[in-house]
Amino acid sequence: MKIRTLRYFSREAVRGIFRNKLMSLAAVGTITMALLIFGVLYLVTSNLQYWGQRARNQLEVRAFLAKNAPDREVMEERLSSIPGVKSVKFISKEEGARILGEMFGQTDLFAQGENPLPDSFNIYPVSGADVEAIAAKVERISGVEEVVYGRNFVRLLNLFVRLIWIVGLILISLTVFAVLYIVINTIQLTVYARRKEIEIMKLVGATDSFVRWPFLLEGIYLGITGALVSIFLLIQGYTVLYGKAKNFARILPVLSSFEVTMELIVFLLVMGIFFGALGSILSVRRYLKV
Amino acid sequence: MITARNLTKRFSNGVVALQDFSLQIDKGEFVFLVGPSGAGKSSFINLVIRKELPTSGLLEVGNMNVALLKKNEIPYFRRNIGVIFQDFKLLPNKTVYENISFALEVIEADAREIKVRVNYVLDLVGLTHKRNEFPSELSGGEQQRVSLARAIVNRPHLLLADEPTGNLDPETSWGIMELLKEINKRGTTVVMATHNKDIVDRLRRRVVAIENGRIIRDELKGGYSLED
Fold first, then answer.
1. What's the pLDDT tens digit per position in B57-115?
2. Which residues contact A258 (CB under 8 A, 6 or more apart)?
3. What is the dihedral of CA A103, A105, A106, A110, to 10 degrees?
4. What is the count of residue pairs from A and B with beta carbons less than 8 Å apart?
5. Residue B25 contacts by C-beta under 8 Å, 6 or more apart in sequence?
6. Which residues in chain B are contacts of A20 at CB distance < 8 A?
7. How far is residue A148's CA from residue A144's CA, in Å, rounded to a whole number?
8. Residues of B whose CB is below 8 A from A207
9. Buried b / exposed e across A73-102, counting CB within 10 Å, b at 16+?
10. B102, A5: Cβ pair inside 8 Å?
């Protein structure tokens, strides 16, 4: 193909868009709406996942020591050497009493009697996903009497994180088909309006690919436009929501808009181009049989 | 240039457009296809440009068996044939100049060559001053001339004209005929479907009369009807 022809194609594509303004607008509108759905799905999924992961990474294993346990240093070394452990923190029975006292709003919880609490260690994992494995290993270390971690909570959380992923993926792929159907129908309308043009091209001796190219480029341009509009709307909307949600960040952490932007942009652009191109190709095909 | 032997075209709805149609048109000829509406003139043209396939019989255009053309050969086959369509088939979104240059863009002609050739045919059909107007801004005769210009810009060996003077006033019609005669004089085979009795009778060229899909008369230097 000559460079000149390529230029001709892109010129034709741009002209096609502007000389069929209403149809182009309809197509861009449809693609924008479709991508907005994706964008929202994407944002919700990635935030839920982020939330799950954050919660998981705040997990810790607590090991209560036996009365006859070895020295603090020995225990610390034993616990630290477990693979997947980021750090350990010693909590003496006095400190334990203080923390417990704070929780009950009393500073001298065991002032009158003997402090019944054992010494303990807080063990922080590198990844929240390893909590169960670490806890099992801690349990087997001599000198440890009891291990506490939210066993059921951890299991639920792991399930939750995986579930979000799966549900998000299923929703997105179901939507892909629905959206593709709508987008193809809209683009088909724009092509239908120009079927005469295709017929004439074929009658003066244009090859199929010569007819197809401008439409393909047009579809891609429309897709990119739709993607840019939806990206703009999503980022604007998300920034506003993020501003509001930040106040509750301690309860419900939210990904900052900067963190989601790049992935979102790439995701929506790819989707937009895909929809536009596929829609055009499938739409033109039926009118090429002249 | 065109050889039809026992050609039959039957549409899927049962309508028979051409029946046992045999015709030989040589290179450089000027042939009128005459007959009432629905006689099969346009059907014949559609077969020649391979828009339709014959049901049976043989049709050769420029020594190519039309029925045996492969799908990807059709575009290249059509580039040798210029067609003036009854309904002009101009692109409403393109200017006069673009409508004509389109036929050359399609075959990926050289930019400079496109310019030279389009300007030449624009001059030939007398529409240089309307080059930037859109078809909707033109009269019927002007649109017809654009269609003609597009059909010949490619210097085809064969020019098919389907009612090129239909709906035109006599003066404009004669202008079109003068152009067709001129193009024929330069070696292009011209086949023109018409029911303009006046033109056929005055030009005295070969006349092929069609009725109900059959050739009922074929005479050199004929008139529109037998009595003439």
1. 999 998 899 999 998 899 999 999 999 988 889 988 889 999 999 899 888 888 899 99
2. none
3. -20
4. 54
5. B1, B2, B3, B31, B189, B191
6. 93
7. 11
8. 72, 75
9. eebeebbeebeebeebeebebeebbbeeee
10. no
The span from the CA of A227 to the CA of A235, in Å, is 12
**Residue A200 near chain B (CB below 8 Å):** yes
CA A258 to chain centre: 13
- How far is A55 from A154, CA to CA, in rounded Å? 9
Sequence-ordered list of residues with C-beta below 8 angstroms from that of A23, at least 6 positions apart, any chain: A189, A190, A193
The distance of B208 to chain A (nearest Cα, Å) reads 25
Pairing relation of β-strands A120-125 and A61-65?
A: antiparallel
Tens of pLDDT, residue by residue over A253-267, are 667 666 677 888 898
pTM of the model: 0.71
Determine the longest span between alpha carbons in chain A, in angstroms: 104
Q: Which two tokens stand for residue A259?
A: 């963190």
Catalogue the E-assigned strands of A59-143: 61-65, 85-91, 120-125
Quick check: B51 and A290 CB within 8 A? Answer: yes
- Letter for the amino acid at B13? N
Give backbone dihedrals phi and psi of A289, rounded to 5 degrees, phi first: -80, 60
Of chain A, the end-to-end C-alpha distance in Å amounts to 23
Beta-carbon separation of A201 and B106 below 8 A: yes
3-class DSSP state of A254: coil
Contact B93 A204 (CB under 8 A): no
